[in-house]
Amino acid sequence: MIFSAWIFVWLALPVLLLGELLVRKIKILARFNIPAPVVGGLLISLLILLARISGVFTAELPTKTAAPWWSWFVTTGTEWSRSPSINVHQPLLVAFFTCIGLNASWSIAKRGSFQVLIFLLASTTLAIVQNGVGVMLAKLLGVSPLLGIVCGSATMTGGHGTALGFAGMLEGAGLKGAGVLGVAAATFGLIAGGLVGGPLGGGLIRRFGLQSSVTRDLHMEAGKTGESGILQDFRALAGFGKVFLLHLMLVIACLKIGAWISYILQQPFHLGGRDFKLTFPVYMGAMILGLLIRNLVDISGARLIKTEVVDTLSSVSLGLFLAIAMMSLNLLELASAAVPMLVIVSVQVILVILFAWFVTFRIMGKDFDAAIMAGGHCGFGLGATSSAVANMKSLVETFGPAPRAFLVVPIVGGFLIDIFNAMNITFFVNLVK
Question: Is the pTM here over 0.90, yes or no?
């Protein structure tokens, strides 16, 4: 029997509520700041895995849908006419990063621009080290060094999108099944990133007795504190009334127009006698558009975009996206992965933990925001900026606001690192093939 991909959307809210309940009831989850969507979603994916292994459950659970009204939000007119199949959570992912763009005000960014450059340097260094370690371990284990790249920055810093984007190039270089291997490695990283970031950030805060220097009345950039949860976010949106509807329409417009921007960015171009094609995440166009709109509005002197509304929309999008992404993981891909691959990605997890603790935390200032950024670096250093933000959001809800962290990490993890990582991967593929 084949179920509809919409089952994950229908279950997103109850699974998210389940995760919040478990985090409240199980002290170790709260102490280690494990994000509620990761807890609830991973529990469901584990139950599905056990059911399949035991033979109780044999149905297929697809994760893609071709529903025209849903794919319309994130595709161009040309693409939409071909009835494309998209991941069912893709509009939520793009909406989340659109909100990141809408909150990226230059008036705030210029206060932390130097920190953005430092964090970008750290992130690029980690990506290079990931590929170096991956290639070295692959050679020691007697497998293709290309597998080391797949289990390196292509999936750890890059995530599922980069892994699939470079699959054709890697297969052309001689690595069969690069796409499947990339998805499995990125899945491992996504789970690990959501599990280790909170404990690491919390451990740094406790180890060095750090405290937030910001009052608790700020919202998501500072890390919304106090009462939190998906139901509280829904009540807040309802309380905004017409203002919420206007902001929702703005986000939808960014999604649609941003699809065209992403399409243009990824068109091949000719340079120096060679053809090139850059690979960007699906949310890139919408995030750039959101950033431009926010800053043009700020320059005009108008105060039409309300940060607190965008924050709440961002929180809802992130929670629902992560819940769907985590419970739709096919853990059989991990269970069936080759031993060398598991060895490499396990070492990568240890590498990221050590790098975040001994490098990221220290070069970002060894203060409270630096600890939050170190926890976030575990998220996108192991596969997803959304996991990084979820890690940081979980931390600030416990320890207090960290506005600098919520400015720096999304800018680097959601945009800048992809450019440098693409060059990094290309260099290593050409080096070892």
Answer: no
